[in-house]
Specification:
about 725 residues, alpha/beta, Rossmann fold, eight-stranded mixed beta sheet, 27 helices, 26 strands
Length: about 725
């Protein structure tokens, strides 16, 4: 690595499933498959490269008695450059990925907290699968660094397959949240700096059906395998090869499991290994074997379909596949010929299982209806097993490169059986496929080569992104990096606080903000819309704010691009019923809805003159209907109804939580009733001299200072009063 090149810090995200470094539980369920192995191995091997300073693999923290305690560890170290970071969202229970969407903004917020606490911003965010892609995409925008995506599988092809299999579209949408997923995938394609795929077929078949498929650049980087762990079967015959005790035990256990089922265990073995998923087409393989008496006479069939204890307790898809597998075994009377073990250890037993099958001169079969890649094909090939694989997806590239098997139509059982038979009966063909698989896997599919190519691809993207940024003195740092570095924050209302028509101290406050930019964040909290707030600040010469809390605390935006805080949106949406509130309040003739431009998703705005019991009547009506809300009345004229979780003050507390800034580090200023809640609490409050009567009740409150001067002068007076930072004005 050249001395002048900066080392790279990568944050990868794989949120669903159960992720750990040692002994991953591959096949435990639909969410713990090849993606887990991929991200773990990628993280490990990237950390071994000199160009990489650090790689963190982010996943979800799960603390559930149904799964191992390993998944409840907040941080798991692999070496001094690589670790798994587990962030909790949506509670601690383990659940399927389709239920995760509503919690992803919580995940983003907590990741920001983690970055802030570590005080270390990554150079790149890499999302795996659309849920993690959504998280990485939003973080990349906040921190202004590249965003890379690997889909592993995509929603449109999945939806098409499920419909073709007879599933109703309404059921697909309900069970798999497929419309949400496809919408997110379209946004990801529009924003990704690079899509990394495993095969060329994946680009055409998985991504090609999307409207935004032409936006990103694509790079095919085939994943690797551990060629030491998946060494060829004949190594065990060599006198210099010494198996570990664990490997010997794994081999013996696999043999014992197979022999439990098989009447003639010495026959060649037809092996399949996959999750119990309908798309894996296990039933197609059983049908091919069950309808071919000659094939049954030649070889045994062994199917390892995930890990199970009680089929009745599994997800419906898995339960259906396993039940059908047992029924077909009975229909074709395959007892003594077909093995269906309940569990296997991916770390030690699976490599031994491949080698046992190769020793028996068997065949590995992947009959999936669609296969985006096919990692098990590589593992089997590395040990010396010939392949029979689906002609749909990744096997095109694998068998094309390795020249070690036959591709079949997975919907044609007779074709599957014929391909298996062809390899079993031709000893020369078996040897040719076995040798080519072993050699070519090592030529094309190692993790070392994958990590090298990956590193070569990302460095130019990181450098181009950095070069495209405006100079720091013109635009400042990306808002994420900036908020990670600062330790104090000034947040002010705009109208009649930060800005008044006649204000001799405004220029001094502007100078102070510019002089202290490296030390202090600047935000506004206003009833205005975000674009209106930015426009008036610019008109009066104020610097661009880092944060805009707009529409009376119902929306939060960041930085130059006004990046919308989706996490705050999700947080305040709870139990907000806008239409019901409008309906109930329509009975009061003293309420006049403000113009359409004043209404927002989380804000209903009225004009209301003061009057006896008017506010009490509104409260009584809304409370009687069990609605949750916050009511704000200001300037004896404006009435806003917003979610009960929303307000300027709550927004500031949210910023404190999200960006790891103590409330005592915030100085807030205001002049009217809609600032009252923001001024109370641990933050330092400043009420400017031209305040409205609604704030009289704050006199004497802890940490609320009433300035003598008005507007900007009052804010400066408060800054001096609190000695807010060392470089005080005057």
């Amino acid at each position: 690595m050249p001395e002048n090149e900066k080392q790279i810090y990568i944050q990868m995200f794989s949120i669903h499933g159960l992720v750990r470094f040692e002994n991953p539980e591959l096949g435990r369920d639909a969410d713990t498959g090849g993606q887990v192995l991929y991200v773990v191995e990628l993280a490990k091997h990237l950390s071994q490269r000199p160009e990489i300073r650090k790689v963190d693999l982010f996943t979800r923290l799960v603390d559930d008695p149904r799964v191992s305690d390993d998944y409840a560890r907040p941080v798991e170290n692999y070496n001094d450059k690589c670790r798994i970071v587990r962030i909790q969202c949506g509670g601690r229970k383990y659940f399927r990925k389709e239920l995760l969407w509503q919690y992803l903004d919580e995940y983003i917020d907590k990741t920001i907290k983690f970055i802030k606490k570590e005080n270390d911003c990554p150079d790149l965010f890499h999302g795996h699968y659309p849920d993690a892609g959504y998280v990485a995409m939003n973080l990349a925008e906040i921190y202004d660094v590249p965003f890379i995506f690997t889909g592993h599988s995509m929603g449109i092809p999945k939806k098409q397959k499920l419909i073709a299999d007879g599933m109703k579209e309404s059921e697909i949408v309900k069970k798999y949240k497929i419309d949400t997923r496809i919408d997110v995938e379209e946004r990801i394609l529009k924003n990704a700096d690079l899509i990394i795929t495993s095969t060329n077929h994946e680009i055409e078949d998985q991504y090609g059906s999307y409207e935004n498929s032409n936006f990103p650049d694509y790079r095919v980087i085939p994943p690797g395998i551990d060629v030491e762990r998946f060494h060829p079967y004949y190594h065990d015959r060599l006198p210099e090869t010494e198996k570990s005790e664990l490997a010997k035990y794994a081999q013996a256990n696999m043999l014992a499991q197979l022999e439990r089922f098989l009447m003639y265990p010495d026959k060649p073995l037809i092996l399949a290994l996959s999750r119990p998923d309908k798309r894996k087409n296990i039933s197609g393989l059983i049908q091919a074997y069950g309808e071919d008496r000659e094939l049954q006479a030649m070889a045994n069939l062994a199917i390892f379909a995930g890990i199970r204890k009680d089929i009745n307790e599994m997800e419906e898809n898995e339960k259906d596949v396993l039940t059908r597998m047992l029924l077909m075994m009975d229909r074709y009377d395959l007892y003594g010929k077909m093995a269906i073990p309940k569990k296997h250890d991916p770390e030690y037993e699976v490599p031994e299982l491949y080698r046992i099958t190769a020793e028996k001169r068997g065949v590995f079969v992947n009959p999936a209806l669609t296969e985006p890649f096919g990692l098990t094909l590589l593992e089997a090939a590395a040990t010396g097993l010939p392949l029979v694989a689906t002609n749909d997806g990744g096997p095109h590239d694998i068998i094309g490169n390795c020249e070690n098997g036959i591709m079949i139509n997975p919907n044609n059982p007779a074709e599957i059986a014929e391909a298996i038979r062809q390899i079993l009966i031709d000893e020369q063909l078996w040897q040719e496929y076995s040798k080519k698989g072993i050699m070519n896997v090592r030529n094309y599919y190692t993790w070392e080569s994958h990590a090298q190519t990956y590193t070569e691809e990302i460095r130019p993207i990181i450098e181009q992104t950095a070069a495209a940024r405006p100079p720091a003195e013109e635009a400042g740092k990306a808002v994420g990096k900036r908020l990670t570095g600062i330790q104090q924050f000034l947040v002010s209302d705009i109208d009649n606080t930060l800005i008044c028509d006649q204000d001799a101290d405004r220029d001094e406050l502007i100078r102070w903000l510019n002089d202290n930019r490296e030390k202090i964040g600047f935000g506004v909290a206003t009833g205005r819309r975000a674009d209106s707030a930015v426009n008036i600040l610019e008109e009066y010469g104020f610097p661009r704010p880092d944060v805009v809390i707009s529409d009376v605390g119902t929306e939060i935006y960041y930085g130059e691009e006004l990046h919308y805080d989706q996490g705050w949106d999700s947080h305040i949406a709870s139990r907000w019923d806008r239409e019901k509130i409008l309906e109930l309040l329509s009975q009061f003739d003293f309420l006049e809805l403000q113009e359409k431009a004043a209404q927002r998703k989380f804000k209903i705005s009225y004009n209301m003159e003061p009057g006896k019991d008017r506010i009490a009547k509104i409260h009584n009506t809304l409370s009687a209907n069990k609605l949750r809300y916050t009511l704000i009345y200001s300037h004896e004229r404006y009435l806003d109804i917003i979610p009960y979780r929303a307000s300027k003050g709550k927004a500031i507390r949210y910023l404190s939580y999200k960006w790891e800034l103590p409330l005592q580090s915030f100085l807030v200023s205001g002049d009217s009733g809609n600032d009252e809640e923001m001024l109370r609490g641990e933050q330092l409050g400043v009420v400017v001299g031209n305040y409205s009567p609604e704030l009289e009740n704050l006199k004497g409150a802890n940490k609320v200072y009433f300035s003598k001067k008005q507007c900007a002068g009052g804010i400066l007076e408060g800054i001096r009063k609190y000695s807010f930072i060392t470089n005080n004005p005057g």
